[in-house]
Amino acid sequence: MPPEFIFKVDISKPEVFVGALLGAMLVYLFAALAIRAVGKAAYYIINDVRAQFKEKPGILEGKEDLITAGALIYHKGALKQMILPGLLPVLTPLA
Question: Does this model's pTM top 0.70?
Fold first, then answer.
């Protein structure tokens, strides 16, 4: 008789098979959403820095400093973009 903590996974049952497919797909969906959120935030920060370089040429020479307050706004936006990837692993098992 096998120990009590070992259980069998019968993949021939449709519920188990579909659950395994959804669970495997969830990893890729989470990664794609997270990468997209980070990419959007980086895109906005890069454009902001480029605009500052055009407005203040002294930045490249070290005479002026970058204004980093805009980066905090983009950081908050990036955190908002991560709400869906964060909720995905929590809500999928409930569904």
Answer: no
